[in-house]
Amino acid sequence: MCGRARCTLNAAQVARACGLQDDDADSVRTVEMDRFHPSYNVSPGSYLPVFAARRDVQGSQVGDLCGAVHCMKWGLIPSFTKKTEKPDHYRMFNARSESAKEKASFRRLIPHNRCLVAVEGYYEWKKDGSKKQPYYIHFKDGRPLVFAALYDLWKESEG
């Protein structure tokens, strides 16, 4: 993904796109969604709604999918980043499935820090000499695209 996306989805739409049924999606728990501002040009460093899910385990059987829609900043800032460092959201906003297990910053997150990101579409750029032409990638029927993602927790010096 190039680093720009469109996301104007509300929490219920995100939850529905990520697999929750209508009733569960309409009453999904949200965390800090007041930080999210719908945009046609979301870039790393912007807030996006993400679905962090887990399955309730009952004995040895896996139960229903549950979780919450959290508002998180796009672009990984590893938890081991110094609090006084200025975060660079562009540095690690794109974990590639074919190499995520090879990179320590991503590998350690794979077992427990996974989530889903739903957007209406994203932009790719085609270079033609010195010109760049944006192309909007989306489903014709308007349904959201869902991406697998990794997250970490980090607080800057101001909290």
Please give the domain count: 1
Indicate the CATH topology: hypothetical protein yedk fold
The top-level CATH class is Alpha Beta
Question: Gap between N and C termini, in Å?
Answer: 30 Å
The whole-angstrom Rg is 17 Å
Question: Tally the helices: what do you get?
Answer: 3
InterPro entries: SRAP, SRAP-like
Protein name: Embryonic stem cell-specific 5-hydroxymethylcytosine-binding protein
GO molecular function: DNA binding; lyase activity; peptidase activity
Family: Belongs to the SOS response-associated peptidase family.
Describe the structure.
The chain is mostly beta strands and 159 residues long. The protein has a single domain, classed as Alpha-Beta Complex (hypothetical protein yedk fold), CATH 3.90.1680.10. The chain is built from three helices and nine strands, in the order βααββββαββββ. The strands form two sheets. It has a five-stranded mixed β-sheet, covered by helices on one side. Strands 3-1-7-8 form a four-stranded antiparallel β-sheet, with no helix packed on it. The model is unreliable at 55-63 (pLDDT under 50).
